[in-house]
Amino acid sequence: MSLVSLSDGLLLTKQMVLIPHLVAAVRKKALEGGNDLRQILIAANWKMNKLASEALSFSRDFLPMAGDHTNIEVVICPPFTCLYTLQNCLNGTGIRLGGQNLFWEEKGAFTGEISPLMLADAGCTYVIIGHSERRQIMGESDVNINRKIGAALESGLIPILCVGETLQEREKNMAREIVKEQLRKGLQDISMANRQIVLAYEPVWAIGTGVNASNDDAQEMIAFIRSYMEKIYDKAIADSLRILYGGSVNEGNIADFIAKEDVDGALIGGASLQADSLAGIVRAVQNV
């Protein structure tokens, strides 16, 4: 029987590698057995949606519908105004909270900004940094993204660093170069020693458009990202790094994405705003 390595300590037959859902199933079984593999992460980005009362209603509906999610990690990133509400609702459920942005200083005269310490105080474990909407609409630079990542790590938060190309860049065959530069600049002088960071590949042309990259497209780019991370760090870090796909993910296509060897979950926008939709995604992942 011919064997190939999926990660340290786990071997698969070549026939299994050719069947993506079996790859995901073996990865899930290894997680259940305590193997130190990459745990699937589902991160819900609510963007600028929901009042505190709506967040409360969402949590009451979502929790019973989501069912058992012990083998995956679920994170909800609401607007800042909903963090305290959800902190109380989600306490003890295993579901984590994340911020959608931060500033790189702990405190000071920075009107309208929020610090890493404030996010941690509101119950956050994660924070999204460098989302394409902030890059494209707010003009957020790689330099400032780099500052934010450093500040998040120093405060004990886990950054979800977003990278991805526009349609024009993709059509010019610049996608890999763009993503590589976003990673190089965003992670400049960032140490990964004893720290966690999550990457999210979100092709800009697939966000909120209903048009998503194919699972093969996602696997190809995410495998490239992992190989580049090996070059700027090392193989152990690259192999342990969780890399998500983001872009019009829903209950109907999530299983196809996470079945790919290098795709470790999803950053979900519009489909995370309805409790039944997000719960369906969680159930679909849990059942793969």
Polypeptide structure, described:
The protein is of the alpha/beta class and 288 residues long. The chain folds into two domains: 37 residues, no CATH class; 247 residues, TIM Barrel. 42% of the residues lie in helices and 16% in strands. It contains 13 helices and ten strands. The strands form two sheets. It has an eight-stranded parallel sheet with strand order 9-8-7-6-5-4-3-10. Helix 3 runs parallel beside helix 13 and helix 9 crosses helix 10. The two termini are 25 Å apart. The N terminus is likely disordered.
Q: What is the global morphology? A: globular
What Rg is obtained from the alpha carbons, in whole angstroms?
18 Å
Total domains: 2
Task: Please provide the count of β strands.
Answer: 10
Arithmetic mean of pLDDT: 89
CATH topology of the largest domain: TIM Barrel
The name of the CATH superfamily of the largest domain reads Aldolase class I
Taking the sheet with the most strands, its summary is: 8 strands, parallel
Q: Distance between termini?
A: 25 Å
